[in-house]
Amino acid sequence: DLTATAEVVRAGNSVGVSAVEVESATPAGETALVAVGQGAFRLFRS
Question: Which tens digits make up the pLDDT trace of 6-45?
Fold first, then answer.
């Protein structure tokens, strides 16, 4: 199984940025980081 954890890096007036880490269980039963990424999102505030 994969587990993704995201954190908000910045949330401005119109753009938000988040950082994501994806982890997976290893055969030894430990957790290993398998991917990282960033996303930028358009924010609509009312």
Answer: 999 999 999 999 999 999 999 999 999 999 999 999 999 8
**Residue 1 in 3-state DSSP?**
coil
Domain ranges of the chain: 2-42
| DSSP string covering 4-46 | EEEEEEEE-SSEEEEEEEEEEE-TTS-EEEEEEEEEEEE----
Whether this prediction's pTM lies above 0.90 is answered by: no
> 16 near 41, Cβ under 8 Å?
yes
What are the C-alpha distances in Å from 17 to residues 3, 43, 44?
A: 20, 10, 14
